[in-house]
Amino acid sequence: MSLEVLQSGAALDTGGYPAFFRFREIGERVVVTSIEGEWIVLTREEFRGFLRGEVDRDGALHQRLVERNLVRESFDARRAAEAYRRRKRFVHYGPNLHLMVVTLRCNETCVYCHASRANLDALHTDMTIETAERAVDLILRTTSPHVTIEFQGGEPLVNFPVVQHIVEYATQRNRGLGKQLEFTMVSNLSLMDETKLAWLLAHRVQLCTSIDGPKSLHDKQRKLPTLSSYDAAEPWIARINAAYREAGLDPTLYHVEALLTTTKETLERWREVVDTYVALGCRALFLRPVDPFGFAEKTRKIVEYPREDYLAYYRRAVDYIIELNHQGVEILERYAAIFLTKILTGDDPNFLDIRSPGGAGIGQLAYNYDGTIYSSDEGRMLGAMGDPTFAIGDVRTSRYRDIVSHPTVRAMAIASNLEGQPDCVDCPYVPYCGTQPEHNHKTLGTMMGRMRESSMCAVHKGIQDFLFEKLATADAATLEILHRWTTIRAREHFVQPVAEGG
Ligand code: SF4
To answer: By alpha-carbon position, which residue is closest to atom 5 of ligand 1?
Structure first.
């Protein structure tokens, strides 16, 4: 019996040997996973034996398969249930990530961002104090014990007084609630000054920025009217990292996080991108493809690319990052770290866009400047483009229960449950993967999506193929590096104190 016959769905006599499994061929190897995420990579020959039950019960292969709970006669249902429960623990809590768009105004113009910004004179796109307070009141009703409020824009520093008010108001309101409260700000840093920075550091607001690679590329994609946007951000990254060090914080944990958007031009410049991040002192690089939200059709031709080109770029860049790690440079790739954490540790890092069911509405919410509540920032961007599908409430009138049980949120939870997705049900990567209903809606015209046409699926599948290839073939030192990328250490400094003042 060939693998091709198995794929055709013809009847197969397995001799009752395998427990439930899914599989996928990658080159000469076959990845086999169980429903709860146990896995093994077999040669084609081994896989044929596994399928037919023709495995020597005293041999090493049988032993390996038993250890992975993939053999029916020794299947441990309790262990499988426990592993599944551990992987899905995030479903017990309501939204933990709350994005607040404090203004749409921005001084930068980015090639891939139209719906997310307004010119600096568009004062009507600033969030008011009253809207901000109603949003915070709602946020703190979440059943999640962890709450992160992320300031987005536009450029949040344009409406800094409202950012300050939100931090102070939320911290004070949280005193009686005792949630683990954190604040993050995503800023282009060009409007930063010493006074603002001192305040942000004193209030433990974590700072993130966007760096699209080397200066020439960054400046081309992110334009300031008179200055180089790279030169405007770079000194502040160094300044903030120095401030963390001066405060005695471990630089491996505390440093400015930077976000990359991969455009067509980035693809050939993977080495320069990695080198730039290393030179800036970043410890993580997230090789995110450009997303389909927020830019006009004519821009698509400039920034978009086939996903196989993206995957070739991804492989080159990650191989280079691994090479640097061998030389003692500590930097990881974020996609790889997310998937490897799920594959190697059995835990889920709760990255909201790569989990099943997805995080929209039940793990995250976005609050627009005008008080409209969206399932996510992507849902908000679609709203700005004239598609209100993912608008699920208003901070002035909606109750927490109305939002998290909104019919759209229910539909999204069903649509992003991979166990119920055609194509995903046969894919071995279900235990580690995720889909985004907003992305499916925008690119395929349906929240459910069609995975074989989905660019997001292509990226997730290609990255997991690459990682399983590595896990099957890498030397011990490389495996150690990949394992190191799964280490999660809490950044407790950013958690707001709750004790003082009762
Ligand atoms: S989204 Fe694609 S890669 Fe992920 S589980 Fe579904 S079919 Fe597999």
So the answer is: 430
Within 10 angstroms of residue 348's Cβ, the number of other Cβ atoms is 21
Tell me which of 307, 419, 435 to substitute to probe ligand 1's pocket, judged by most ligand atoms within 8 Å of the beta carbon.
435
Summarised one tens digit per residue, pLDDT across range 12-37 is: 777 789 999 999 999 999 999 999 99
Q: Which residues contact 223 (CB under 8 A, 6 or more apart)?
A: 108, 109, 110, 229
Q: Which two tokens stand for residue 411?
A: 């539909």
Domain with CATH 3.20.20.70 in the chain: 89-391
For domain 89-391, give the fold.
TIM Barrel (3.20.20)
> For residue 429, how far is its CA from the centre of ligand 1 (angstroms)?
6
Contact predicate 409/375, CB 8 Å:
yes
CA of 378 to the centre of ligand 1 (A): 20
Residues with CB under 6 A from ligand 1: 418, 421, 423-424, 427, 429-430, 433, 435, 451, 457, 460-461
Q: How many Å lie between the centroid of ligand 1 and the Cα of residue 377?
A: 22
**Overall pTM surpassing 0.90 (yes/no):** yes
Closest alpha carbon to 84 in 125, 38, 43, 122: 38
In this predicted structure, what is the pLDDT of residue 497? Answer: 83
The kind and range of the H/E element at 219 are: helix 215-221
Tokens of residue 336, six digits: 């790889």
Q: Give residue-wise pLDDT tens across range 108-161.
A: 888 887 667 899 999 999 999 999 999 999 999 999 999 999 999 899 999 999
Lowest mean pLDDT among 45-54, 98-107, 218-227, 357-366: 218-227
Report the Cα 73 to chain-centroid distance in Å: 38
In the reported structure, the alpha carbon of residue 411 is separated from the centroid of ligand 1 by a whole-number distance in angstroms of: 19
